[in-house]
Design brief:
Blueprint: H1 20-28, H2 32-54, H3 58-75, H4 82-112, H5 117-137, H6 140-151, H7 156-163, H8 167-182
Helix pairs in contact: 1-2, 2-3, 2-4, 3-4, 5-6, 6-7, 6-8, 7-8
C-alpha cells in the first residue's frame, strides 16, 4: 500500500478487515504498516484474552500483550484468517503471561530469602573488580545489560524489559560482552562478534 494511501479503519462498527494472509505475509517481511493493521485489528481482543487467561490487573495484561506483539513482529507466520491470527496471538499471550508469572515468583523467592550480610559483602568485593573491568571494555549496551544481569542479579527477561529488548537479545549482549572480555568469540569459531 503506498504511503500516501488512506488506510481503512479495521476495527469498530462497519470496519472491513483486509485480507489476513496479505497482512501476515507483509508483516513477516517486516512491513511496519502491516504490523499497524494487525495490531489495530487484534488489540481489543488480545487485551480481553489476557484478562480472561490470567485474571490479573490491567497493567500485567497490557505487559503480556506487549510481549506477545513483540513475538508476533518477529515470528508470526503467514495465516489465512483473522481467527487463526487471534488464536496464534492468544497462545503468545498465554506464553508471555506464564513467563511474567514465573519471573514474579522467582523474584519473590529471591526477596524472601534472608541474605547474610558478610557473604553479600564478600560477593560484592569479588564482583566489583569484574564489573569495573567490564565497564571499560564493553560498549554501552553490553555494559548496561551485564551490569543489570550480573551486577544487579536481574533475570534476563527483567533486563530486557528495562532495556526494551527481548530476553534473547539481552542474552546475546551479555554473552558477547563476556566473550569480548575474555578475548574469545561467543559460541565458538566463525561466529560474528557483532
Amino acid at each position: 500500500m503506498p504511503p500516501e494511501a488512506t488506510r481503512e479503519k479495521v476495527t469498530g462498527p462497519g470496519a472491513r478487515l483486509p485480507d489476513a494472509r496479505a497482512i501476515t505475509v507483509r508483516l513477516a517481511k517486516g512491513d511496519q504498516e502491516a504490523f499497524a493493521v494487525f495490531y489495530e485489528a487484534t488489540f481489543d481482543n488480545a487485551v480481553a484474552d489476557a484478562h480472561r487467561l490470567t485474571g490479573r490487573d490491567e497493567s500485567f495484561c497490557l505487559d503480556a500483550v506487549q510481549d506477545a506483539y513483540l513475538r508476533a513482529a518477529k515470528r508470526l507466520p503467514a495465516m489465512d484468517s483473522w481467527g487463526a491470527c487471534r488464536a496464534w496471538l492468544r497462545t503468545a499471550i498465554a506464553s508471555s503471561a506464564i513467563d511474567r508469572i514465573r519471573a514474579d515468583a522467582a523474584r519473590a523467592r529471591r526477596e524472601a530469602v534472608p541474605r547474610d550480610t558478610a557473604d553479600e559483602r564478600e560477593h560484592d568485593d569479588r564482583l566489583q573488580p569484574l564489573l569495573d573491568r567490564l565497564q571499560t571494555q564493553l560498549d554501552d549496551r553490553q555494559w548496561h545489560a551485564v551490569r543489570l544481569h550480573v551486577g544487579g542479579g536481574l533475570p534476563m527477561s527483567a533486563v530486557g524489559r528495562a532495556m526494551s529488548l527481548s530476553r534473547h537479545a539481552v542474552h546475546g549482549l551479555v554473552r558477547r560482552g563476556i566473550a569480548n572480555l575474555s578475548g574469545g568469540t561467543p559460541g565458538g569459531e566463525g561466529e560474528s562478534n557483532d
